[in-house]
C-alpha cells in the first residue's frame, strides 16, 4: 500500500522524431519522414513517475478519457509501476504531440488535443471514496488548471485530510490559490509567486523572504519558490528561511519538468523521515540532475545517490 497519492491533471506526451530528405510535392512545407515515436507521462502522471522511479510506491488518481490514448496511458503507468486509479470520463485524453528533428533535437511543431472540463459530482465522490480506502499519508495536488477547479471537491478534500492528519502538497496556478489556504506546502515558481502576491518583485533573497513571510502568514502554509538559475527558497510556517543554491555548476538543457521532480522528491523524502529543510535539499539535487536532460524525464535512485 502506498503512503503517497498524486491527484489532478494528467497528460500523455507523444514525441515524433523525423528527418526530411526530399521536397514535399504537395506544398512548400517540409515532407517529414517519421523515424520513431515515443510516449511519456506528463503533469500529475510525471510527478507519480518520479516517485516510482525512486523505487517507491505511489498511487495516481486522475480523470482519464476512454479513447485510444487512454490505453497507451494505462500501459505507461503499468510499465513505470504506478498504481493508476482512473476516473473515466467521456472526453478525449489530453495529449500533446511534438515533432522533433532527429538530427538537431529541435521541435518543429506541437499539436495539442485537449478539452477544458468541469468535474462531475460523481467523479468527486469517487476520488474521495478512493482516498478513504487508500488512506495515504501524503497527497500531492499537481494542478495545471486544465480542469475547472471545483470548490466542492477541495472542501471535501480539506475535511478528509484534516480529519486524517494527511499532509497535502500543492503545485497550483495563481487563479486557484485561495482554495488552498489550509495545505501543508505550496510550491509556485517565481513568476507564479509574483502573480500570487500581486507584486512584481526582484528575484533576490530579500524580496523573496519579505513577501514569502507575508504569504506563509496569510495562507498558514510552508512555501517553496522555485527561482530558475537561483533555484529554491523555503519559508516555513514559523518563518525559518532557507535560500538553497545548486551545489555545483550545471549545464541546463530543459527546466520544463524540474518542478514535477522537485515536488515528487520532497514528498518521497518526507515519507522517508526527512525534515522539510533536508527534503528540499534532496529535491534541489534531484531537480538539477533532471535539467541536464531533454524532454519529459524522471530521476532515479542511482542518480540521486551517486
What is the topological layout?
Blueprint: E1 4-8, E2 10-19, E3 33-43, H1 44-53, E4 59-65, H2 68-79, E5 83-89, E6 95-101, E7 107-113, E8 117-118, H3 121-134, E9 138-142, E10 147-148, H4 151-163, E11 167-171, E12 185-186, H5 190-197, H6 205-219, E13 222-226, E14 232-235, E15 241-244, H7 258-271, H8 276-290, H9 301-304
Parallel strand pairs: 1-4, 1-9, 2-6, 4-5, 8-10, 9-11, 11-12, 12-13
Antiparallel strand pairs: 2-3, 6-7, 13-14, 14-15
Helix pairs in contact: 1-7, 3-4, 7-8
Folded structure, characterized:
The chain has 306 residues and is of the alpha/beta class. It has a domain at 4-11 and 41-92 and 116-183 and 246-304: UDP-N-acetylmuramoyl-L-alanine:D-glutamate ligase. The chain contains nine helices and 15 strands. It has helices at residues 44-53, 68-79, 121-134, 151-163, 190-197, 205-219, 258-271, 276-290, 301-304; strands at 4-8, 10-19, 33-43, 59-65, 83-89, 95-101, 107-113, 117-118, 138-142, 147-148, 167-171, 185-186, 222-226, 232-235, 241-244. The chain has a nine-stranded mixed beta sheet with strand order 5-4-1-9-11-12-13-14-15, with helices on both faces. A hairpin with a 5-residue loop joins β14 (232-235) and β15. α1 crosses α7 and α7 packs antiparallel against α8. The relative contact order is 0.13. The model has no long low-confidence stretch (mean pLDDT 86).
Amino acid at each position: 500500500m502506498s503512503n503517497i497519492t498524486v491527484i489532478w491533471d494528467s497528460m500523455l506526451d507523444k514525441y515524433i522524431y523525423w528527418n526530411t530528405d526530399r521536397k514535399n510535392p504537395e506544398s512548400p512545407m517540409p515532407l517529414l519522414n517519421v523515424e520513431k515515436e515515443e510516449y511519456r507521462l506528463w503533469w500529475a502522471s510525471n510527478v507519480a513517475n518520479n516517485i516510482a522511479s525512486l523505487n517507491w510506491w505511489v498511487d495516481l488518481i486522475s480523470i482519464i478519457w476512454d479513447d485510444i490514448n487512454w490505453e497507451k496511458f494505462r500501459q505507461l503507468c503499468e510499465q513505470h509501476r504506478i498504481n493508476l486509479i482512473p476516473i473515466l470520463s467521456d472526453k478525449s485524453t489530453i495529449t500533446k504531440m511534438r515533432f522533433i528533428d532527429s538530427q538537431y533535437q529541435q521541435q518543429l511543431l506541437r499539436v495539442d488535443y485537449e478539452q477544458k472540463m468541469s468535474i462531475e459530482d460523481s467523479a468527486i465522490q469517487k476520488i474521495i471514496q478512493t482516498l478513504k480506502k487508500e488512506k495515504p499519508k501524503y497527497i500531492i495536488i499537481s494542478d495545471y488548471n486544465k480542469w475547472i477547479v471545483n470548490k466542492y471537491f477541495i472542501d471535501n478534500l480539506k475535511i478528509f485530510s484534516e480529519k486524517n492528519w494527511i499532509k497535502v502538497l500543492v503545485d497550483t496556478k495563481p487563479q486557484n490559490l485561495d482554495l488552498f489556504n489550509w495545505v501543508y506546502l505550496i510550491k509556485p515558481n517565481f513568476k507564479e509567486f509574483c502573480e500570487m502576491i500581486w507584486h512584481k518583485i526582484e528575484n533576490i533573497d530579500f524580496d523573496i523572504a519579505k513577501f514569502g513571510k507575508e504569504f506563509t502568514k496569510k495562507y498558514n502554509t510552508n512555501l517553496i519558490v522555485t527561482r530558475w538559475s537561483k533555484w529554491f527558497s523555503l519559508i516555513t510556517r514559523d518563518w525559518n528561511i532557507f535560500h538553497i543554491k545548486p551545489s555545483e555548476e550545471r549545464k541546463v538543457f530543459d527546466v520544463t519538468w524540474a518542478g514535477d521532480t522537485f515536488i515528487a522528491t520532497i514528498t518521497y523524502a518526507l515519507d522517508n523521515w526527512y525534515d522539510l529543510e533536508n527534503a528540499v535539499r534532496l529535491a534541489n539535487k534531484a531537480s538539477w540532475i533532471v535539467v541536464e536532460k531533454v524532454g519529459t524525464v524522471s530521476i532515479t535512485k542511482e542518480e540521486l545517490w551517486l
